[in-house]
Write a structure and sequence with these properties.
about 230 residues, alpha/beta, TIM Barrel, single chain, nine-stranded parallel sheet
């Protein structure tokens, strides 16, 4: 893990790279949100990142997130769930997170809807799309995404805000670009259908190794952990 003083400098560099990538393709840097991925990162380091100007953090595991969110209740930031979510954890997720990036099935959506209703809230979600067709990753198949979105749109305690993907891993960021482009195209196709209760505002794509091409292809949320907090121990 990285020294505390380095966190602020890393954040400054990432924000600069986000700005350059956005402006380089004619977008406003304000249209790209940075989600700091805090899996295995200590509450102290998260606090340091918040002090350095970050206001959105992404967690992968419910139990780990619950402890941190409780410990950091005073810092007034937004928490996103970005990992694989099991239906039996839905009751915790709606209590903890402003946005859930990884809704990949109607079963999960129905359970989130039920739990959100119990809390008297409308839960914002993204639909996860598995563009690489990888068996090891969750997400709806590209051709099934629209039908899933139409079904989820009927659930009154959920609000579909966009799409998310975890593309196949490549060492070269340029090899990932076609997947980002596919997600952006899918977003446009679905937005054009004007489905009630569906906003296609968000595209959550791009991580430490490839967030610049993701921004160039239209990402509105990039999920960056390693470049801020260092390699996971």
């Amino acid at each position: 893990m990285i020294h505390m003083n380095d966190i602020a400098e890393n954040i400054r560099q990432i924000k600069e790279r986000i700005t350059n990538a956005a402006m380089g393709c004619g977008r406003s840097p304000k249209d790209v949100g940075l989600v700091a991925v805090t899996k295995t990162v200590s509450p102290e380091q998260i606090r340091k990142a918040a002090e350095a100007g970050l206001d959105c953090f992404g967690e992968n595991y419910i139990q780990e997130a619950d402890k941190k969110i409780t410990a950091l209740a005073d810092i007034g930031v937004s928490w996103h769930f970005i990992g694989y979510l099991q239906s039996n954890k839905a009751k915790y997720a709606v209590r903890l997170f402003d946005l859930i990036h990884s809704v990949d099935s109607l079963k999960l959506a129905k359970e989130l809807n039920r739990q959100a209703a119990r809390h008297g809230r409308v839960q914002k979600i993204l639909i996860q799309v598995n563009l690489g067709g990888e068996k090891t990753k969750s997400g709806a198949a590209k051709q099934a995404a629209e039908e899933l979105i139409r079904d989820v749109a009927m659930l009154e305690n959920l609000s579909v805000r966009g799409l998310m993907t975890l593309p196949p891993f490549f060492d070269a960021p340029e090899k990932v670009r076609p997947y980002f482009r596919q997600l952006a195209e899918l977003r446009r196709e679905i937005a054009a259908k004007n489905i009630a209760n569906v906003e296609m505002d968000e595209l959550s794509m791009g991580m430490t190794g490839d967030f610049e091409p993701a921004i160039e292809e239209g990402a509105t949320l990039v999920r960056v952990g390693t470049a801020i907090f260092g390699e996971r121990s």
